[in-house]
Amino acid sequence: MLYIIATPIGNLEDITLRALRTLREVDLIAAEDTRNSGVLLKKYEIKTRLTSFHAFSDQRKLDEIIGMLKEGKNVALISDAGTPGISDPGFVLIRAARAAGIKVVPIPGPSAFLTALSASGLPINHFLYLGFLPMKKGRQTMLRALQEEQNTVVFYESPHRIVKTLGELAEYFPERKLVIARELTKIFEEFVEGSAAELLTYFSQKTPKGEFVVIMDGKDVKAERHGRAEGAGFDE
Ligand code: SAM
């Protein structure tokens, strides 16, 4: 069996009992970065054999893991943080395992975009997750298309690009409300909300540090309608 295991996005206590038990019991853990995952495994005294599986892993590595799975071995896939496959390596292995008729079992846990959305105060019954925005090609086209997007939009951003991105958002979406979640589950966790121009001023004051999730209201959000539907806990 191939287990897809979500791991913490900062606070090492954010891991399920089932994830810990499975990591202990499998024959092999395929990790995006073995050194990074070593910290988590050491904390929980998990001594399972580790191998690396990342965005640049070649076909041989894939064949090796699929080979083990075909022999009936159990393998756990983990990434550096959060849920494997969500803006992280995993897809190729999961697809190959399914194609080989191997059972794939997800073990749920954190993901940065869901964690950020859950406390954002923006409507989240419907949302559009974009991963990282394209860096060059297609970026302006995507920003233009988002001007018509009705749903809450959420994406990842790096500390090096956050100021540039906020500048663009101020240009394309001057009226929208944004929430930026920084360093979720860590000591310096913060949620900052405002217009893109306000957030640009805030994050331009000193060099931005840490990990960022950007959340933006959809077009023409009717706060009252969303508030009722969300508060009542049912969909529209
Ligand atoms: N697989 C991960 C998940 O399920 O969320 C995402 C991996 S992606 C390569 C890494 C990006 O996720 C970071 O650049 C940042 O934008 C976001 N991220 C991860 N951890 C975060 C945290 N603790 N606080 C804020 N954003 C975070």
Please provide a written account of the structure.
By secondary structure, the chain is an alpha/beta fold. The chain has two domains: 2-107, Cobalt-precorrin-4 Transmethylase, domain 1 (3-Layer(aba) Sandwich); 112-225, Tetrapyrrole methylase, C-terminal domain (Methyltransferase, Cobalt-precorrin-4 Transmethylase, Domain 2), CATH 3.30.950. The protein contains nine helices and ten strands. The chain has helices at residues 17-25, 34-43, 59-70, 91-99, 112-118, 139-146, 162-172, 196-204, 223-232; strands spanning 2-5, 28-31, 50-52, 75-78, 104-107, 127-132, 152-157, 178-182, 190-194, 212-216. The strands form two sheets. Strands 3-2-4-1-5 form a five-stranded parallel sheet, sandwiched between helices. It has a five-stranded mixed sheet with strand order 6-7-10-8-9, sandwiched between helices. Strand 8 and strand 9 (190-194) form a beta hairpin. The longest helix has 12 residues, at 59-70. The two termini are 38 Å apart. The model is unreliable at 231-236 (pLDDT under 50). S-adenosylmethionine binds next to helix 5, strand 7 and strand 10.
Topology of this structure?
Elements: E1 2-5, H1 17-25, E2 28-31, H2 34-43, E3 50-52, H3 59-70, E4 75-78, H4 91-99, E5 104-107, H5 112-118, E6 127-132, H6 139-146, E7 152-157, H7 162-172, E8 178-182, E9 190-194, H8 196-204, E10 212-216, H9 223-232
Parallel strand pairs: 1-4, 1-5, 2-3, 2-4, 6-7
Antiparallel strand pairs: 7-10, 8-9, 8-10
Helix pairs in contact: 3-4, 7-8
Residues 9-10, 79, 81-83, 86-88, 111-113, 156-158, 181, 183-186, 211-213 line the site of S-adenosylmethionine.
